[in-house]
Amino acid sequence: xxxxxxxxxxxxxxxxxxxxxxxxxxxxxxxxxxxxxxxxxxxxxxxxxxxxxxxxxxxxxxxxxxxxxxxxxxxxxxxxxxxxxxxxxxxxxxxxxxxxxxxxxxxxxxxxxxxxxxxxxxxxxxxxxxxxxxxxxxxxxxxxxxxxxxxxxxxxxxxxxxxxxxxxxxxxxxxxxxxxxxxxxxxxxxxxxxxxxxxxxxxxxxxxxxxxxxxxxxxxxxxxxxxxxxxxxxxxxxxxxxxxxxxxxxxxxxxxxxxxxxxxxxxxxxxxxxxxxxxxxxxxxxxxxxxxxxxxxxxxxxxxxxxxxxxxxxxxxxxxxx
Length: 322
Known about the structure:
Layout: H1 3-8, E1 13-17, E2 20-26, E3 33-41, E4 44-48, H2 55-66, E5 71-75, H3 81-84, H4 87-94, E6 98-101, H5 102-112, H6 115-126, H7 134-137, E7 150-152, E8 157-160, E9 163-169, E10 178-182, E11 187-191, H8 212-224, E12 230-233, H9 242-263, H10 271-279, H11 288-303, E13 307-312, E14 315-320
Parallel strand pairs: 4-5, 5-6, 6-7, 11-12
Antiparallel strand pairs: 1-2, 2-3, 3-4, 8-9, 9-10, 10-11, 13-14
């Protein structure tokens, strides 16, 4: 039986284009699901993103590998643990080579430093967020227990299966985020840069992230200008109208920024209070995305002169500039 026929025998796999298959990998935390893509080539399949290092993710991949599928290499859109979590498992279990961008590898090295959890705890406190344990923030640190076999850079061309794709840096959701673009087939492998039903988290992950929402708007405009018929996102459904989806995401940020103005129209507030005005009170397991994206919006608004921050009792308070 040929590889493509074997893949069609695996019920969780979906053929999304010629020689391209989507594997939906599930796990019991975070986003709870990620799209992994398998690109058929003469030497086996290139896998883009793997899912989390959870036992549930491993069980799904074991079914695929037990069907006799040969994986030539792994490639990643960015280094968040739900995308890169099984890099080390593939290396150790199957000897699969790991290919990643230089920026991705830099992020891997940063996250390995346990002080990154310390920094994030301090960052939450500075912005009026809830207290959270450093252990929780570093709970998926084992996702980074590997070394890449091949490093590539932005603007290079790499093979996904038999086709050559352009590497396009798209920071915003993550500073190391990249998309892969095939101009002849007009396919964009988008990772978490553009999603179908939800807006990607735009967050400050380290002191080096100065204005992630501005970065995101710029890179969203960049991919919107490409000729694309099919977008392969990291979560949820496929996207066929990229400019419309990008415009909708940007419109959502603008709407939320109007809500920020409403929240602070009468008094200065920290981000931890502003996000609760907008989203309501959230549990310790659901606050992360609303708080971090609210902070990114406030940083962006301050950069364009709409709000200003001041430090009060060790916290950043934001107020409107009239």
